[in-house]
UniProtKB/TrEMBL annotation:
Catalytic reaction list: L-aspartate 4-semialdehyde + pyruvate = (2S,4S)-4-hydroxy-2,3,4,5-tetrahydrodipicolinate + H2O + H(+)
Family: Belongs to the DapA family.
Oligomer status and interactors: Homotetramer; dimer of dimers.
Transmembrane segments: none
PANTHER family reported for this sequence: 4-HYDROXY-2-OXOGLUTARATE ALDOLASE, MITOCHONDRIAL (PTHR12128:SF66), DIHYDRODIPICOLINATE SYNTHASE (PTHR12128)
Pathway terms, separated by semicolons: Amino-acid biosynthesis; L-lysine biosynthesis via DAP pathway; (S)-tetrahydrodipicolinate from L-aspartate: step 3/4
Role of this protein: Catalyzes the condensation of (S)-aspartate-beta-semialdehyde [(S)-ASA] and pyruvate to 4-hydroxy-tetrahydrodipicolinate (HTPA).
Keyword Secreted: no
Lineage, uppermost ranks: Bacteria, Pseudomonadati, Pseudomonadota, Gammaproteobacteria, Oceanospirillales
Protein name per Swiss-Prot or TrEMBL: 4-hydroxy-tetrahydrodipicolinate synthase
């Protein structure tokens, strides 16, 4: 089972929007050095919605090659077309990814049965471990616990990134899902509490800029070290909040510019962080001694 601090990796870009391959290598190396437990390549934080299919597959392949087996690589392969998700998942398997993360279909608002059939079909088509991803605030599609529990019975569906921030829902899944089915937080602000309930890790935006702190936080929370984990979480809350002053990944990419990790490239329709929020993000980075 993949556990711990899992970074939802940004995709560095040039000012013209082209993928910055050298900066991508640099940020992967940064996570290897700082003890991140696993990397999600081209998840939604990695701007999967605006990378074309070739770029999507190339970024996954590049991350797999750079990591070279040191930690697991999870490929973001979700789509609102089941066939497209199958094709991306197959490409990720061919590239050598250890698992895939599949966001719920966005915009088309499938029924719960439609969600079940979508994921069941992908799991049957591609023999690779697959992680469900529920983030209704971004997709307008909420996968309910009963649907998750049905899907948890499928052998190669191994977990879920639960990004609602609803701890009652997380508790229900932890209590009712098979023991080997992983429950990951996808909400940095509530991640510690989810892991203290018995969750298995955190797929994190904040880990892009604070990988060592997030790694230690996750290790403590999973081990049940309540006070120590909550103390780190408290020290990071300003940073967590600053990562969402505009739509993700706008703030985190700007933060990484401040850190000297990459240039200001981001794909339209997203734009560089508005000036009114820059001091807030900068102050949060300083408070955590990141810059």
């Amino acid at each position: 089972m993949i556990t711990g601090s899992i970074v939802a990796l940004v995709t560095p870009m040039m000012s013209n929007g082209d993928v910055d391959w050298d900066a991508l290598d640099k940020v992967v190396d940064f996570h290897l050095e700082k003890g991140t437990d696993s990397i999600v390549a081209v998840g939604t934080t990695g701007e999967s919605a605006t990378l074309n299919c070739d770029e999507h597959c190339q970024v996954i392949k590049r991350v797999v090659e750079r990591v070279a087996g040191a930690i697991p690589v999870i490929a973001g392969t979700g789509a609102n077309s089941t066939q497209e998700a199958i094709e991306l998942t197959q490409a990720a398997k061919t590239a050598g990814a250890d698992a895939c993360l599949l966001v719920t279909p966005y915009y088309n608002k499938p029924t719960q049965e439609g969600l079940y059939q979508h994921y069941k079909t992908i799991a049957a088509a591609v023999d690779i471990p697959q992680i469900l991803y529920n983030v209704p605030g971004r997709t307008a599609c909420d996968m309910l616990p009963e649907t998750v529990l049905r899907l948890a019975e499928i052998d190669n569906i191994i977990g879920i990134k639960e990004a609602t921030g609803d701890l009652d829902r997380a508790k229900e899944l932890i209590e009712k899902a098979p023991k080997e089915f992983a429950i990951y937080s996808g909400d940095d602000g509530t991640a510690v509490e989810l892991m203290l309930l018995g969750g298995d890790g955190n797929i994190s935006v904040t880990a892009n800029v604070a990988p060592a702190q997030m790694g230690e936080l996750c290790r403590l929370a999973i081990a049940g070290e309540t006070e120590a984990a909550r103390a780190i979480q408290a020290s990071l809350m300003e940073l967590h909040n600053s990562m969402f002053v505009e739509a993700n990944p706008i703030p985190v990419k700007w933060a990484m510019v401040e850190m000297g990790m990459m240039g200001q490239g981001i794909r339209l329709p997203l734009t560089v962080l508005d000036e009114q929020y820059r001091s807030q993000v900068r102050d949060a980075l300083k408070a955590c001694q990141i810059i």
